[in-house]
Amino acid sequence: SVLGKAVYQIRPDGDCLFSALADQLRRLAPNSREWARGGPDALRSAAASEMRANADEYAPFLTEDLVTYAARIEGPTHEWGGHLELRALSEALRCIIVVHSANEPPLRLEPTPPVSNSATASAGSPAPARQVPELHISYHQQQYMLGEHYNSVIPAAEVRGARNQSDDDGWTVA
């Protein structure tokens, strides 16, 4: 790959956005392993909690009551996630989420106030370096028979020599 990245296929089961982010957390944010261990359900709960806690930020973008919407996202229905859930998870996890898609520049979602990987404080004095995870996922408008889909984006070096083989979870390395 030109960018040194590869797509790690996520199962197309309605949890793909949340599973792709859980995969990223497992790989890139060792201090956030509890989110990765909880998988999609933990991330669904985090997104719903963030939306409820900051309803004024999310409600204007919904066509239904926020409480009802958050309950559906958090529930067992495998409701698809999208931009609102990505925004909520960037806030809840205090991380940067980069969404790659074909023919579009990457979409970069940052929590507010913005976080930085730089070691300079706003007053110009040095601040302790704080590593902020950047989670990279890919968005595919038409993939599988379901339509929209998200995958995890990983360093290409992790898949060199790999064949498209499924692991025990049914995920495929491409």
Protein architecture, described:
- With 174 residues, the protein is α+β, with helices and mostly antiparallel strands.
- It is 33% helix and 22% strand.
- It has five helices and six strands.
- A six-stranded mixed β-sheet has the order 3-2-4-5-1-6.
- Helix 1 crosses helix 2, helix 2 (33-53) runs antiparallel to helix 4 (66-74) and helix 2 (33-53) packs across helix 5 (83-93).
- The longest helix has 21 residues, at 33-53.
- It is globular.
- The model is unreliable at 125-129 and 161-174 (pLDDT under 50).
In this structure, how is the largest beta sheet organized?
6 strands, mixed
| Rg over alpha carbons | 17 Å
Strand order of the largest sheet: 3-2-4-5-1-6
Number of helices: 5
End-to-end Cα distance, whole Å, is 12 Å
- In what range is the share of β-strand residues? 15-25%
DSSP strand tally: 6
Structural class: alpha+beta
Taken in chain order, the helices and strands follow as EHHHHHEEEEE
- Tell me, rounded to a whole number, the average pLDDT: 80
The residue ranges in which pLDDT falls below 50 over 5 or more consecutive positions are: 125-129, 161-174
Fraction of helical residues: 25-40%
Q: What best-fitting shape do the alpha-carbon axes yield?
A: globular
Features:
globular; 5 helices; 174 residues; alpha+beta
Task: Provide the fold topology.
Elements: E1 5-9, H1 16-28, H2 33-53, H3 55-58, H4 66-74, H5 83-93, E2 96-101, E3 104-109, E4 134-143, E5 147-155, E6 172-173
Parallel strand pairs: 2-4
Antiparallel strand pairs: 1-5, 1-6, 2-3, 4-5
Helix pairs in contact: 1-2, 2-4, 2-5
